[in-house]
Specification:
The chain is mostly beta strands and 179 residues long. The chain has helices at residues 2-21, 56-60; strands at residues 32-33, 48-49, 62-70, 73-75, 78-80, 89-96, 99-104, 107-113, 118-121, 125-131, 135-149, 152-163, 167-178. The strands form three sheets. An eight-stranded antiparallel barrel has the order 3-6-7-8-9-11-12-13.
């Protein structure tokens, strides 16, 4: 019986020595952060998602304060007040699949928003503005910009329309958004 216990103890010690002498693999340190590549704050270094991901589509939605600085435009000697075309506050709504909309002069304007916050006004978007001498005119609106954070963004918009005799007129507007 003594031999069996000796063999048992030697076997157990051998297993403990083998296990303890095995080289442990290097443990990967935990790096918390956003691990979703579709988020604005995606971190290539993070290996554990900490719930901090910020998505441009989500933060773009809601109420924004708008400030505009438009190039002056003169039609037949009359100044066209383009800075008053845009409201002081705007509501951006999610339409799904990376598309948002905003109401400008009672017209829904649609824009595409990418994961990094880049916003591009979709083709063939129009608003109506009142131009002295001409009356209400359909104006093509185009442009792009960026939602930088949940509280600020900036855009360059181009307003263009046809005027009899003068042809196509256009003006560029710098728009800043804040909350």
């Amino acid at each position: 019986m003594g031999n069996i216990s000796n063999i048992y103890v030697i076997g157990l010690l051998s297993i403990v020595i083998i296990i303890s002498s095995c080289k442990k693999e290097d443990e990967v340190p935990i790096i918390n952060g956003c691990t979703d590549a579709n988020a604005m704050n995606y971190s290539t270094n993070a290996n554990t998602n900490d719930g901090s991901c910020v998505f441009a589509y989500d933060i773009a939605q809601g109420s924004w304060n708008i400030e505009t600085a438009c190039q002056e435009l003169n039609v037949f000697g009359f100044d066209v007040p383009l800075n008053t075309v845009f409201p002081k506050n705007i509501e951006i709504l999610g339409e799904g699949a990376g598309v948002v909309s905003m109401d400008i002069n009672e017209k829904n304007i649609f824009a595409d928003i990418l994961y990094d916050g880049t916003v591009t006004i979709q083709d063939d978007q129009k608003i109506a503005i009142d131009i002295p001498v001409l009356g209400e005119v359909d104006v093509d609106i185009s442009g792009s910009g960026m939602i930088q954070t949940a509280i600020n963004g900036s855009f360059t918009l181009v307003l263009s329309f046809d005027v009899p005799v003068l042809g196509t007129q256009s003006s560029s507007c710098e728009v800043t958004c804040s909350r």
